[in-house]
Design goal:
The protein is mainly alpha-helical. It contains 23 helices and 4 strands. Helices cover 69% and strands 2% of the residues. Strands 1-2-4-3 form a 4-stranded mixed sheet, with helices on both faces. Helix 1 packs antiparallel against helix 13 and helix 20 packs antiparallel against helix 21 (627-649).
Length: 734
């Protein structure tokens, strides 16, 4: 903020009608800008880990390769023969044998991240002191200004009040800096000449940064960025010096290989993108600070202050480098009177790009570090999905929930944002520094992951948006309490973590089976997945949350023109789809070569899945994209109901009825979760039909449509024979 500011007692009176309309819904939850800062810091730290990996390969690569070859030779001698059991046993032996050198590789790689982090944390002291020295000499402001800052801090919930100081006579802009616990607000001396209301507006703006907790994140991000550049140079300089002394080759001959050329391009691209992203988030936080500072206050003082500032014509380079938005943009944001600002395509692109980089890098590191332990494979992928899902749940989920207008969710879906999220996720997988020198394969199959991950992330984003619209439609506003936001964060965490884990598993099976057997990969990562139990629990939690929203009593904002009995159509649709699926399953018994009770059980589970899928399709046909919210609870209900009826048919013959009940619940819901993710993005592009008297007969036919679709899909599954079955040689039904 360019401040030419003033003195005098505070003379602002609250004017809630002029303050941002959603400011009362701003609890102490991490902001979307803060989540993007954390994503950026994580990407930069993981880039340091890749530099550490290169250093390991240069200094310890020979001993690592020797150990790996020795372990492989020992495995061949210890486990002779051909076939899947022998290959699996040899692979297990190799992992156990190479565990020490793999863990050493992970530790050396993480040392690169540790060095970047250490230098970045040190910059929390160095960079702010450097800035304040350039703004000085600093003089502590009079007690009157300290008192005004304390009053404003008390109103804004800031516990530790920063010290207010004057900068030099040359200082033009106010800023907040200092190491953690000793923050200072540095004001230009011209603030003393401003009207009291405008001076307080400047103080509140700077305190808004402190209240948001983004001061430390800003300096940490800058410090990590500056620290990463020399760390990335260390491997190249080391190899050049080493080969110069040993082989007498010049640096150009050493670094002129394709690997180092690709490494240099990717490193430069990463640093450039990180700088641009940091500048963009800095501008976003200025808007958030403006709007946060107006809570309970009139906007006229800040608006008049900004309107009086000149708006110079900037080149595209100056706009990209600017850390503050122009005064005109800030005034336009103030006049929207809405906190937070709508999520832009650039925000979404940044979130998807950085998330993909974080997830794959964490997965590779975890797989290396957990080699030879029970945590390799699924747990390692789960860890990367959990880390990335936590950041996505705020960077996308909470940002979209806060930005959903309180209009009953009748507006269009954020389709452009969903496409940007999918595209940037794919670009992040290709452009990350860890992909240097990788031809296209990897532990999870690079190219299958480039297909499955963007689709799953965008699908989770569509389902998150559907839940947000369902919340607004049922409750009339965004979550207004800490418990409400805790529920929102939790359900988004489940959505994105589950989507990332399912995408990783699907990529693994696609890498093994190939694209021609994509249906097999679909079943192996759904109903027959080792993670089916956790997937079922996740979908059940999301479905219960959506059902709670649907049953809430506050319906102050119904969809305009919607029939009052719309809820009954959902109930009848669930019942019709479940009943038709059960009837079709019992009416026809296919002849399966493998036979056995296990095949019959799996057909039952597929029939229950078809009931949920038919419910989803019918609700989308009735409501278009807006039917996704209701489908999130209706489809699992239909699948569970159909599975329960088919399980009850054999109740007296089950040897372990509880185990069978768990199977009849887990298998359909785990497969349905994968189908929901795959279909959510295309469903978001369906048009939302207008409701009215002419549409009531269509709503009445929705249960009929669900029944027809359920019966047809079940018969198609039964006629496929054993195409969708997975019967172990020694498997038996529960």
């Amino acid at each position: 903020m360019t401040d030419t500011a003033a003195s005098g007692p505070p003379a602002l009176s609250p004017s809630p009608t002029d303050s941002p309309s959603t400011s009362r819904h701003w609890p102490g939850v991490t902001s979307s800008a803060g989540a993007r800062y954390l994503l950026l810091v994580a990407v930069l730290l993981l880039a340091g880990a890749f530099a550490g990996q290169i250093m390991h390969n240069q200094l310890l690569g020979t001993s690592w390769a020797s150990a790996y070859l020795r372990c492989f030779d020992e495995a061949v001698r210890a486990v002779p023969g051909q076939g899947f059991p022998q290959d699996f046993a040899r692979n297990t032996y190799v992992q156990q044998c190479t565990r020490p050198v793999q863990q050493r590789l992970a530790l050396v790689s993480l040392s690169g991240s540790f060095v970047v982090l250490l230098l970045g944390v040190a910059s929390l002291w160095v960079l702010p002191r450097r800035l304040m020295r350039r703004a000085g000499p600093l003089v502590t402001a009079p007690a009157e200004w300290q008192h005004r800052a304390a009053l404003a801090a008390s109103e804004m919930g800031v516990r530790r009040v920063p010290v207010v100081v004057w900068g030099s006579v040359w200082l033009q802009e106010a800023f907040t800096a200092g190491r953690p616990g000793r923050t200072r607000i540095v004001l230009p001396r011209g603030v003393r000449d401003l009207p009291p209301a405008q001076a307080d507006a400047i103080l509140r703006h700077e305190l808004a940064h402190v209240a948001a907790g983004d001061v430390t994140l800003v300096w940490l991000t800058r410090g990590v960025w500056w620290a990463l550049a020399p760390v990335l140079l260390v491997p190249a300089v080391t190899i050049a010096v080493r080969n110069r002394s040993q082989d007498h080759r010049g640096p150009l001959a050493v670094l002129g290989t394709s690997f180092w050329g690709e490494y240099g391009v990717r490193a430069l691209l990463l640093l450039t993108v990180a700088a641009l992203v940091s500048q963009h988030v800095l501008r976003s936080r200025e808007h958030e600070a403006d709007l946060r500072s107006l809570r309970g206050r009139t906007r006229e003082p800040l608006e008049s202050l900004l309107a009086g500032q000149p708006s110079p014509t900037l080149s595209w380079m100056d706009r990209a480098r600017a850390t503050h938005p122009t005064a005109a943009r800030r005034v336009a944001a103030l006049r929207q009177a809405r906190l937070p600002l709508p999520v832009s395509l650039l925000d979404v692109t940044v979130t998807g790009l950085l998330s993909a980089m974080v997830m794959n890098a964490v997965a590779d590191l975890a797989q290396t570090g957990f080699t030879g332990t029970s945590l390799t494979g699924g747990p390692a992928r789960l860890l990367s999905a959990l880390v990335t899902g936590s950041l996505l749940s705020v960077g996308w989920g909470i940002a979209v929930w806060r930005g959903t207008p309180a209009d009953g969710g009748a507006g269009p879906f954020p389709r452009g944002a969903l496409l940007a999220l999918a595209a940037s996720t794919a670009v992040g997988l290709v452009a990350q520094l860890q992909s240097t020198g990788v031809s296209g394969a990897g532990p999870s199959g690079r190219w299958p992951l480039i297909v499955t991950l963007p689709l799953a992330v965008a699908g989770a984003g569509a389902l998150s948006s559907a839940l947000a619209r369902l919340w607004v439609r049922r409750g009339g506003a965004a979550p207004g309490s800490r418990w409400g936001w805790a529920g929102a964060v939790g359900v988004n965490l489940v959505l994105f973590t589950g989507a990332l884990r399912i995408a990783q598993e699907s990529a693994v099976f696609l890498h093994v089976t190939g694209w021609r057997k994509a249906v097999d990969a679909l079943a192996l990562s759904g109903m027959y997945s080792a993670s089916a139990d956790s997937t079922t629990l996740g979908l059940a939690g999301v479905a219960l949350f959506a059902l709670w929203l649907a049953l809430r009593g506050d319906r102050t904002l119904p969809v305009p023109g919607a029939p009052a009995s719309a809820g009954r159509y959902v109930v009848w649709t669930v019942a019709a789809a479940a009943g038709a699926a059960v009837a079709a399953r019992w009416a026809y018994e296919p002849v399966v070569p493998q036979g056995g009770s296990m095949a019959a059980t799996q057909f039952d589970c597929w029939a229950a899945t078809c009931a949920g899928l038919a419910t989803l399709a019918a609700l989308l046909a009735l409501k278009g994209a807006s039917g996704l919210g209701d489908a999130l609870y209706a489809a699992p209900l239909s699948a569970t109901l159909a599975g329960a009826v088919m399980w009850a048919r054999y109740l007296t013959s089950w040897h372990h009825p509880l185990q069978a009940a768990a199977l009849y619940t887990t298998d359909p819901l785990s497969q349905l979760a994968l189908l929901l993710l795959a279909l959510a993005l295309p469903a978001a592009f369906l048009p939302t039909p207008t409701h009215g008297p002419a549409r009531r007969w269509v709503a009445g036919l929705t249960p009929v449509l669900a029944a027809v679709l359920a019966a047809a899909s079940v018969l198609a599954v039964l006629h496929s024979g054993d195409r969708l079955l997975f019967v172990p040689p020694t498997g038996t039904a529960p």
